[in-house]
């Protein structure tokens, strides 16, 4: 059986120049098409590897996040977007296709980007939902443990509100928010096993992201949808 795009992706498949132009497109969407407020951009290190861990409520969270970042980023995006009619744009943008049934290849590519000192974005919840970060998957912990990169929590707010369908696209000039928190740096007790490091990373990142999303709601006054559906 042939591998899916997300299972077959390799570091050499990713266009390093993609974020140079696609971040500008994201900025136009954020600030000219929508009306996006970006908070805490100063929390993102100006150089070196960075993991951006964002909550996920709406279908436009990916481009919203990409355009809000002060540096170009390679975001793990579900492979279905790459298989669509505009999939070639995702490829040219330097984004990373991920097969959600087996994300090993995408994580390996993400690690390679981080090893090059790049910014990698990931939605630890794995799929669109309430965006409250009540559950996170192990992929973000794997990246953090294997690269040592700082993890900057991000909250995308306003992309889907209570009553909006999962595929909702905000209209022009919709008021959206992206808030970045202070980096989460992991300190492992001396002698920790790999399993212990993974468990600690998942706990710390999950708690840090959840706390950041809660704080971002308080600061912006924008609430998450009441339901994941």
What fraction of residues sit in β-strands?
15-25%
Q: What is the tally of beta strands? A: 7
Shape: globular
Helix content: 25-40%
Strands in their spatial order, largest beta sheet: 1-7-6-2-5-3-4
DSSP summary: helix tally: 8
Structural class: alpha/beta
Low-confidence stretches: none
What's the topology here?
Blueprint: H1 5-8, H2 18-33, E1 35-39, E2 50-54, H3 61-68, E3 73-78, H4 79-82, H5 87-92, E4 96-98, H6 104-115, E5 119-122, H7 139-147, E6 151-157, E7 175-180, H8 194-220
Parallel strand pairs: 1-7, 2-5, 2-6, 3-4, 3-5
Antiparallel strand pairs: 6-7
Helix pairs in contact: 2-3, 6-7, 7-8
Report on this model:
The chain is globular and about 50 Å long. It is built from eight helices and seven strands, in the order H-H-E-E-H-E-H-H-E-H-E-H-E-E-H. The protein has helices at 5-8, 18-33, 61-68, 79-82, 87-92, 104-115, 139-147, 194-220, and strands spanning 35-39, 50-54, 73-78, 96-98, 119-122, 151-157, 175-180. The longest helix has 27 residues, at 194-220. 38% of the residues lie in helices and 16% in strands. The mean pLDDT is 94. It has a seven-stranded mixed β-sheet, with helices on both faces. It has 229 residues and is α/β, with parallel strands linked by helices. The relative contact order is 0.20.
């Amino acid at each position: 059986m042939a591998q899916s795009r997300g299972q077959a992706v390799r570091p050499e498949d990713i266009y390093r120049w993609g974020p140079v132009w696609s971040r500008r497109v994201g900025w136009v969407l954020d600030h000219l098409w929508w009306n996006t407020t970006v908070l805490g951009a100063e929390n993102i290190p100006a150089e070196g590897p960075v993991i951006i861990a964002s909550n996920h409520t709406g279908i436009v969270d990916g481009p919203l996040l990409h355009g809000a970042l002060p540096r170009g980023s390679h975001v793990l995006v579900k492979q279905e977007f790459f298989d669509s009619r505009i999939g070639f744009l995702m490829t040219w943008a330097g984004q990373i296709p991920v097969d959600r049934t087996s994300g090993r290849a995408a994580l390996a590519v993400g690690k390679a980007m981080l090893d090059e000192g790049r910014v990698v974005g990931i939605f630890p919840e794995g799929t669109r939902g309430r965006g409250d970060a009540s559950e996170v998957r192990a992929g973000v912990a794997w990246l953090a443990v294997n690269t040592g990169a700082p993890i900057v929590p991000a909250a995308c707010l306003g992309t889907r509100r209570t009553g909006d369908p999962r595929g909702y696209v905000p209209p022009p000039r919709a008021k959206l928010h992206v808030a970045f928190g202070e980096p989460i740096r992991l300190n492992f007790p001396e002698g920790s096993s790999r399993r212990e490091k993974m468990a600690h990373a998942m706990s710390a990142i999950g708690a840090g992201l959840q706390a950041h999303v809660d704080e971002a709601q308080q600061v912006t006054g924008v609430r998450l949808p009441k339901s994941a559906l």
